[in-house]
Specification:
Elements: H1 24-29, H2 34-50, H3 57-82, H4 90-107, H5 112-137, H6 141-164, H7 178-185, E1 187-190, E2 193-196, H8 197-215, H9 217-227, H10 229-234, H11 239-265, H12 276-286, H13 298-317, H14 325-350
Antiparallel strand pairs: 1-2
Helix pairs in contact: 2-13, 2-14, 3-8, 3-9, 3-11, 3-12, 3-13, 4-5, 4-6, 4-11, 5-11, 7-11, 8-9, 8-13, 9-11, 12-13, 12-14
Length: 351
């Protein structure tokens, strides 16, 4: 009597779905920044055609600089939006950071680097305040940060007039440590060429944020919290700590931007920064972040900032009326949102 061997598994049949390979096309459609990259290419080609000076090296460097000043803040704002929250105080917090650094250094006749350190501590404390208030009160981040926005706007003006007697700080260009701080936060010269340090800060922050989102546990927490705080808490994600750290991240980048503002011009106007918070949010949304949270990327925010830089300077190089700038910005926001929604639908349809 002979035994019949059991039939071998058909190697040509369908395998475990967990082992299925995803096609490059599906991976591409799944990237949050795909729509913004397409939009950036279209904006670049458009201004290359309509503006004769757009492709000059000096023009492109100006575009990069403009994009970097927005991009530094768009990165943490994007992470915060992925985590499901907003920060309407980001623009004036940048100005607060510059004012604190300048006034402390001037009044205490201290090295400006000491003033910058004091400013960092205060700015991080304000960011932590936003986060703690959010998680303790359970109020929407819109209300919490709108309140912080109004308080900081009043404090910026009130303290500046109280200390200096005017709406701007006094110059600190002749104080100890200013040249070194200028090299770190504003610009430095290499071989006779001026390099804007905001571009380097921007690149470093995008790389760091991308690594955090894609390669760390904290990045998983950010996506989980943005996808649903209740579900994230149920599986052990420290929701409160994650949100507080995200707000402190926004504060840290506001400090960098504030020091750039101070050490580029050596004086600060107390009313600056109002309205910039919307620009940061727009850059993040154009870059693929969802208003509802749980989706987006740091690279997308960088592309969104680049689109902003190309548009703001492209209009100038094309010699158009700059009064139309916000119209184009609003149109780009709507188009980018629609394109991102279409890309997400196609990605979900192919999975």
């Amino acid at each position: 009597m002979t035994a019949t061997a059991p039939p071998a598994h058909d190697r040509t049949g369908p395998s475990d779905e967990r082992l299925l390979r995803t096609s490059p096309w599906k991976k591409l459609l799944g990237r949050p920044e795909l729509g913004s990259v397409v939009g950036a290419a279209a904006v670049f080609l458009f201004f290359s055609v309509v503006a004769d000076t757009f492709l000059r090296a000096s023009s492109l460097s100006t575009v990069l600089y403009a994009a970097s000043t927005i991009g530094i803040m768009a990165v943490p704002v994007a992470l915060l939006m992925i985590g499901g929250e907003f920060d309407l105080s980001a623009g004036v917090l940048m100005t607060s950071s510059a004012l604190i650094s300048s006034m402390f250094s001037y009044q205490m006749t201290a090295n400006v680097l000491v003033g910058a350190l004091v400013s960092l501590l205060v700015t991080l404390a304000i960011g932590a305040f936003n986060g703690v208030m959010l998680v303790r009160t359970k109020l929407p981040s819109f209300i919490i940060t709108l309140g912080t926005f109004l308080m900081l706007t009043g404090m910026n003006l009130g303290f500046t007039k109280l200390v200096s007697g005017t709406v701007s700080t006094r110059t600190i260009a002749d104080m100890e440590g200013f040249p070194a701080a200028r090299n770190v936060f504003a610009s430095f010269t290499v071989g006779g060429v001026e390099v804007k340090t905001t571009i380097l800060w921007w690149i470093a922050l995008v790389a760091l944020a991308t690594w955090i989102l894609l390669r760390t546990r904290f990045g998983n927490w950010i996506f989980a919290v943005g996808g649903g705080a209740g579900a994230a808490r149920a599986v052990g994600v420290p929701v409160a700590r994650t949100k507080i750290l995200l707000y402190m991240g926004v504060a840290f980048c506001a400090w960098i931007s504030g020091q750039h503002l101070l050490f580029s011009f050596d004086v600060v106007q107390s009313g600056e920064g109002v309205g910039n918070e919307l620009i940061y949010i727009i850059a993040a949304v154009i870059g693929g972040c969802l208003i509802t949270g749980g989706y987006g990327s740091a690279i997308g925010s960088a592309v969104g900032a680049l689109i902003f830089g190309m548009t703001s300077k492209g209009i100038v190089y094309a010699e158009w009326n700059p009064d139309w700038f916000k119209f184009f910005l609003g149109a780009m926001l709507l188009l980018a949102t629609l394109l991102n929604a279409w890309v997400r639908k196609r990605a979900e349809a192919t999975t």
